[in-house]
Amino acid sequence: MTTAVVVGSGPNGLAAAIRLAQAGVEVTVVEAHARPGGGTRTSELTLPGVLHDDCAAFHPTGVASPFFRSLGLERHGLRWLWPEVDLAHPLDDGRAGLAARDLGITDESLGVDAARWRRVFDAPDPGVQRPHR
Ligand SMILES: Cc1cc2nc3c(=O)[nH]c(=O)nc-3n(C[C@H](O)[C@H](O)[C@H](O)COP(=O)(O)OP(=O)(O)OC[C@H]3O[C@@H](n4cnc5c(N)ncnc54)[C@H](O)[C@@H]3O)c2cc1C
User: Fold this and answer.
1) 12 alpha carbon – ligand 1 mean position (Å)
2) Which residues, judged by CB distance below 6 Å to any ligand atom, belong to the binding site of ligand 1?
3) What does DSSP say about strands 3-7 and 85-90: parallel, antiparallel, or unpaired?
4) pLDDT tens digits, 77-94
5) Atom 1 in ligand 1: which residue has the minimum CA distance?
6) Residue of the nearest CA to atom 18 in ligand 1?
7) What is the pLDDT of residues 98-131, one digit of tens each?
8) Biggest alpha carbon distance in the chain?
């Protein structure tokens, strides 16, 4: 049997390992860290019980990835969480521009720039499955 060694168990290493295994290759993943996951690991970095994302904290490309979608990861417990407000950017005048799931809230925070924002983001990618709200 063909064999392969994948160095690193971050999302890319694991995706490569899964793809190879799907093609019938016997794969070994080696990982230097005590836990798998690479930049997607979550750890108690400060206080006991307080969990921090070691690196990646939001995963739009994970949601959009046709490969990840093909794996049916929900069957293994994956659940995407969708915050009401994706991000806030403080403005000089004390207000904040918000990227909210409710575009009405985003519009309100962006004022005159709302129309430009909508031109870019108001047409959801048909390949991205969004949860019902
Ligand atoms: C601070 C920070 C914040 C980020 N935030 C986001 C975010 O919010 N959203 C997002 O999409 N992306 C984010 N990223 C980027 C994201 O984390 C990376 O794109 C992603 O983790 C890359 O995956 P990877 O599998 O290529 O490598 P990594 O996730 O880096 O995994 C590599 C793995 O290989 C192991 N390894 C390395 N060398 C060896 C070796 N010689 N032997 C054995 N094991 C080895 C490492 O221990 C590690 O586990 C962030 C990155 C950083 C640094």
Assistant:
1) 8
2) 7-13, 30-33, 38-40, 55-59, 61
3) unpaired
4) 999 999 999 899 998 989
5) 55
6) 39
7) 989 888 999 999 999 999 988 887 766 555 555 5
8) 64
